[in-house]
Specification:
The protein has 846 residues and is an alpha/beta fold. Helices cover 51% and strands 9% of the residues.
Length: 846
């Protein structure tokens, strides 16, 4: 008994639709031929008894088969039926009639096969570079077919399938080791045999068996492709197995469904391989036109999973799902960029409009983008409402971890701005509308290098958010003592020895962190390191060392000294300075130093204008403003006697520098005065210090995790941001905040010693308060957000020392050890002694 091929298709549709495995009939038809041949290979009748049938003979080398079929049945269906009888893989069989090979998709009627016709069965003739691969794959398929036909599990056959798959992979290693760079595609071609021969289909068929042993065998064979193994699947060969994993994913999704654990594992393995850039050159995946439609369903599937997680009350998305989501979108992005070949973003008219079909991949990817963006907007709106409803919203860390997934999704959405014309605008609109929740999430974000793109929208971010993002550009540092760069510094040789330790070290050695100790002193740890940063920065920017000049209007603001060349080592000292400043930022130590605008802008790679030099050289600024405002007729009469030159004093001699070729002969007039001023500014503040700035930038970039981000680091901040991060606050200390940020051990807040202490501190001069804070914590300049910006609370510990002892401190732990003095006057005298600066700098112990 047999049914027609169309009946088999209908049966397969019913089977899959019943399991809700397919989103549409079209998707099944796209892949139906290979699935149907498998269905027919099993004992399914080819036509119903009521249909008109014909019988014919198929001769093989050993026997003749009698076949009953319908004239509308295809040759492929007949071959599939023969496979179920003989166990020979259908892909290896061909039917010959009247001296010609019959096409698989032709019907028997098309081929004029009539009742009692004689057809000849022959093996497929193939010319291949990999005969051993074809032989092994055919053996795998034959072994699977043998298992399926057996009523009870043959143990030997089970092990045979597993062994053959391993042997096939070992053979791939042999091809890989013998292939030259010119013929590296031989490995991909070898592995592609597995797909072309239909082995994935055979193993999935075995996995669909009701026999548990068969299912386990098939699963074990499939998993061999998922895990890198030095014995039979090294990592470089596994990447080239991507077409095989892709085939398993398709077959499993369309048969057992996307909830099946083997499918999920296959999809995860495929996603992990996509993270390697080499996958784009594997077999049929080497062309974007092949990659995009094959990866798009998985990208859409992962997007739906992520959207479902974002919609949940807990905003819960698993780390694995987020990782797979990112991997598939990354792969899709690479494929689209390869397809675009550097062209401009896709014009809006190509993907926005009712005339475009839903199966157009350009439109499909854009639909994924818009759906995800809308979902993110909805969740950020919900967080906005929560934040406004409960100021200072308190949520658990796990809850915030859920919300942080939104930043990951936004990061994936960001790449669409390179693909679609209006994607950047729509993304910016959402970020603009949700600034409150966006900044809250960024301030709480953990280190993640992929979040740097948010700094493109720095106008939407507050200072704390920008600071957190730029600090992610520094290495994370390490807690292991052995990874720290050790320094033993003599205070009397502070600058010279610090220079040697920092400049002679390999930049990577400084990425782990610093361990600092002063010679002949007991103190070590973070507190001493903070002290060192403050002292060495004060030395670097001291006018006595001629590296930097203070601004006339602000002695705490500096720019490079054009005359620094008087020190033959000045350029090396600028590299040293750049490293020290970057390390101070990395260790979050405020050193009370600010950069003048002209210095900051050059580090950011930006041009300097007249308004930028106002603080650096107020006299020059005023003179230039007068030239610009001067009456044109008077200027044209050469009343000032200016030409395009500049006079400088160098090593005691006057020197004339032309601002442009032939400048000494060009008179400044009303038409060229703006050009003259621009060239003058360029010469005074850019050309004269270009080497100093470039060497400082080099030292700074040495400390960044990625040295190429140096300019982007400064472009991501405003000058005021950098001032706050590096300089900290030098304003009056808020004693009330100081007190609120202090806890006690051995004392209680109401103890008389604590009451005396705060009364004494409140009556101290501001500078004495600062010295006390430095003695206590090694923090000379508070963060801009005050005591709340410190790494921890401050502590006052009761000690058992006698009353005549001075207070001591453990600066690493912000701990002041205070003896229980008997009177307020006694305490005041002891505190006055330790707040002398020469004492406070050397009195701490670890």
């Amino acid at each position: 008994m047999s049914v027609s091929l169309s009946a088999a298709i209908a049966r397969l549709h019913h089977h899959l639709d019943h399991k809700h495995l397919l989103p549409s009939k079209r998707k099944l038809d796209d892949y139906a031929p290979s699935l149907i041949s498998d269905m027919i290979a099993s004992p399914i009748p080819i036509s119903s008894p009521s249909d008109p049938t014909l019988h014919f003979f198929i001769r093989t080398t050993s026997k003749t088969l009698v076949i009953h079929a319908h004239p509308d049945d295809t040759v492929g269906s007949i071959i599939g039926h023969v496979e179920s009888i003989t166990g020979i893989a259908a892909c290896e069989l061909r039917l010959i009639f009247r001296g010609r090979q019959l096409a698989d998709d032709s019907t028997l009627a098309d081929c004029s096969v009539q009742k009692d016709s004689v057809l000849y069965l022959t093996g497929r003739l193939r010319s291949t570079k990999h005969p051993r691969a074809w032989q092994l794959v055919n053996d795998i398929i034959f072994a699977v077919s043998s298992l399926v036909r057996e009523p009870s599990p043959p143990i030997k056959g089970v092990f045979n399938v597993d062994g053959l798959v391993k042997e096939f992979l070992v053979n791939s290693i042999t091809v890989s080791s013998s292939a030259s760079h010119e013929s590296i595609d031989l490995v991909s071609d070898h592995l592609e045999v597995f797909v072309l021969a239909g082995a994935p289909l055979a193993l999935v068929r075995l996995y669909l068996s009701r026999e548990a042993l068969y299912r386990d065998t098939a699963e074990r064979a499939v998993r061999h492709f998922m895990i890198s193994n030095a014995e039979y699947l090294p990592k470089d060969v596994q990447v080239k197995c991507m077409p095989i994993l892709l085939e398993f994913c398709k077959l499993l999704a369309w048969t057992v469904g996307k909830k099946d654990q083997l499918y999920v594992s296959c999809r995860s393995a495929l996603a992990s391989l996509l993270e390697s850039p080499d996958w784009r050159w594997v077999g049929p995946l080497r062309w974007p036109k092949n990659v995009i439609p094959q990866l798009l369903p998985f990208a859409r599937e992962m997007a739906e999973i992520v959207m479902a997680g974002l919609s949940s009350d807990t905003v819960s998305v698993s780390a694995r799902d987020l990782s797979e989501f990112s991997s598939f979108l990354l792969a899709l992005r690479r494929a689209v960029q390869d397809w675009m070949s550097g062209a401009c973003p896709v014009p809006k008219l190509l993907y926005n409009g009712s005339r475009h079909q839903n199966d157009n991949w350009i439109c499909s990817i854009y639909a994924v983008y818009t759906e995800l963006l809308q979902k993110v907007d909805d969740r950020l709106k919900k967080l906005d409402l929560d934040l406004l409803k409960q100021k200072g919203l308190v949520q658990s860390e796990s809850r915030w971890a859920g919300w942080s997934h939104i930043l990951v999704v936004l990061t994936e959405l960001n790449w669409f701005s390179d693909i679609y014309e209006d994607a950047d605008r729509s993304l910016h609109s959402v970020l603009l509308a949700r600034q409150l929740s966006l900044n809250t999430l960024i301030r709480r974000a953990k280190r993640n290098d992929s979040l740097h793109w948010l700094l493109k929208h720095k106008d939407l971010l507050d200072f704390d958010a920008r600071r957190n993002l730029v600090l992610m550009m520094f290495p994370e540092g390490k807690d292991d003592f052995h990874d720290l760069h050790e320094m033993l510094i003599d205070r009397s040789q502070l600058l010279e020895e610090s220079f040697e330790y920092i400049t002679q070290a390999d930049a990577s050695a400084l990425h782990g962190g610093l361990f600092m100790e002063f010679k002949n002193e007991e103190a070590t740890g973070p507190g001493v390191l903070r002290e060192w940063f403050c002292l060495v920065c004060r030395a670097i920017f001291s006018p006595q060392n001629v590296l930097f000049l203070p601004c006339a209007n602000d002695q705490h603001r500096f720019f490079p000294n054009p005359a620094s060349a008087v020190d033959p080592l000045h350029l090396k000292y600028f590299i040293f300075s750049g490293r020290v400043i970057a390390l101070a930022l990395m260790h979050k130590v405020q050193v009370g130093i600010a950069f003048d605008r002209i210095f900051f802008l050059q580090l950011a790679g930006k041009s300097i204008t007249l308004e930028d030099v106002k603080d650096a050289d107020p006299c020059l600024y005023t003179s230039c403003k007068k030239i610009l405002e001067m009456d044109a007729e008077l200027l044209d009469l050469d009343a000032l006697g200016l030409t395009f030159v500049r006079e400088i004093e160098e090593l005691g001699t006057r020197k004339i520098i032309e601002l442009c070729p032939g400048g000494k002969d060009i008179v400044v007039n009303s038409k060229n005065r703006e050009e003259y001023i621009n060239l003058l500014i360029q010469n005074c503040f850019v050309n004269s210090v270009s080497k100093q700035v470039s060497h400082f930038a080099q030292g700074f970039s040495d400390i960044l995790a990625n040295s190429k981000l140096q300019k982007f680091f400064f472009q991501s901040l405003d000058p005021e941001d950098f001032d706050r991060m590096l300089g900290g606050s030098d304003g009056v200390i808020n004693v009330r905040e100081w007190k609120a940020h202090t806890e006690y051990n051995g004392y209680k807040m109401k103890d008389r010693q604590i009451s005396w202490f705060w009364k004494i501190v409140e009556r101290m001069p501001a500078e004495q308060q600062r010295v006390l804070l430095f003695f206590w914590t090694s923090v000379k300049y508070l963060p801009v957000d005050g005591f709340c910006g410190l790494a921890s609370k401050l502590y006052i510990y009761r000690t058992s020392e006698s009353h005549d002892h001075l207070p001591t401190s453990h600066t690493c732990f912000y701990r002041l050890c205070l003896p229980p003095y008997l009177s307020m006057s006694m305490m005041r005298s002891r505190l006055q002694m330790i707040t002398q600066e020469h004492v406070s700098c050397t009195f701490g112990i670890w």
